[in-house]
Amino acid sequence: MKLKSALLMLVLTIATVLTGCEPLMVLDPKGPQAERQAHDILLSIGIMSFIVIVVFAILIYVLIKYRASKASPDYEPPHIEGNKWVELICVGIPIVIVTYFSFVSVQSNHIVEAKPQAYADKEPLVIYASSSDWKWHFSYPKENIETVNYLYIPTDRPIEFKLYSYGPITSFWIPQLGGQKYAMSDMITTLHLAADEPGEMMGRNANFSGKGSAENMFNVTAMSEKDFDKWVKDVKKTAKPLTENKFNELLKPGHLGQMTFTGTHLGFNPPPNEHHMGSDKHEEDHTDHSQMDMDMSDH
Predict the structure, then answer these.
(1) Environment class of residue 219 by beta-carbon count within 10 Å: exposed (0-12), middle (13-18) or buried (19+)?
(2) In terms of C-beta density within 10 A (0-12 exposed, 13-18 middle, 19 or more buried), how is residue 134 classed?
(3) Which residue numbers delimit the Cytochrome oxidase subunit II copper A binding domain (predicted)?
């Protein structure tokens, strides 16, 4: 009775604690990429839970059916040859499970690495996201704006992030929009995301890159295209220009709040020349650095 009461109290305590928890961000998707990943996570949890339940049921059955009997101590059971059906099931079922998971993983990886199909007919918003100790710099080349530690994006439009780092390897991650991808100092990695609805989200560096990496986070605000265009106009009217000296100052190790500038660092401190497009190898990098410098001078 004491054991049953203790187990019951444990279950009730866990249930009470979990009811006060917020939903996991990866299971609260706000974009097509994140929605696909959340689906795969729930699918994996469901299949693995079923397997665990079946295995425990078989274990309980075996423990009860073949528990110690009153046979004499010198009793020797008869020799039994292996059962081919049991061996086939024990080997075949894991092969089927692994094969299915492999198929789903490859298919999902192709989907989340490519431009969101729902917005295939729309021009992507290109944002250069670079990290330094311990902050994030977001450059909008077409809008000629740069922000620090916060990100504004329009909804219902593909976002194409160009990731790189001014320090150690970091990992760019917005859990409610998609999976993480590394930002490195010698190459650009491309990440395709999109937001389906307006709202506030959190992004962070998911990689350990020094003592300040735990606080290397940024805020993400998704808004309508109209509100995004209004924000761009307001920034151009009120923000100060980003100079090379100011940018070099921002690169120094330390934590900063949110900052906004007109102009970007892409002209005087361009990103690496090498590109890694993930599975989207057929796509050409439509933002050439020399052309980008010309665009900067036009502004």
Answers:
(1) middle
(2) buried
(3) 122-234
284 vs 241, residue with greater confidence: 241
Out of 3.40.50.10490, 3.90.650.10, 2.60.40.420, 3.40.250.10, select the CATH number for domain 117-298.
2.60.40.420
β-strand 170-173 against 199-205: which pairing, if any?
A: antiparallel
Indicate the residue type of 64: I
Q: How many CB atoms lie within 10 A of CB 292?
A: 19
Q: What are phi and psi of 21, to 5 degrees?
A: -85, 145
Q: What is the pLDDT of residue 194?
A: 96
What predicted TM-score, i.e. pTM, was given to this entire model?
0.78
Strands 181-183 and 217-223: unpaired
Tell me, what's the pLDDT at 3?
A: 61
Q: What is the separation of C-alpha 133 from the centre of its chain, rounded to a whole number of angstroms?
A: 21
pLDDT in tens, 214-223: 888 999 999 9
The Cα 204–Cα 135 span in angstroms is 9
What pLDDT score was predicted for residue 146? 97
pLDDT for position 262: 96
For residues 276 and 278, what is the distance between their CA atoms, to the nearest angstrom?
Answer: 6
pLDDT tens-digit readout, 114-151: 999 889 899 999 999 999 999 999 999 999 999 999 99
Phi and psi torsions of 59, nearest 5° = -60, -45
Query: Is there a contact between 212 and 255 (Cβ–Cβ < 8 Å)?
Result: yes
Give the dihedral sign, CA 157/158/161/162: negative
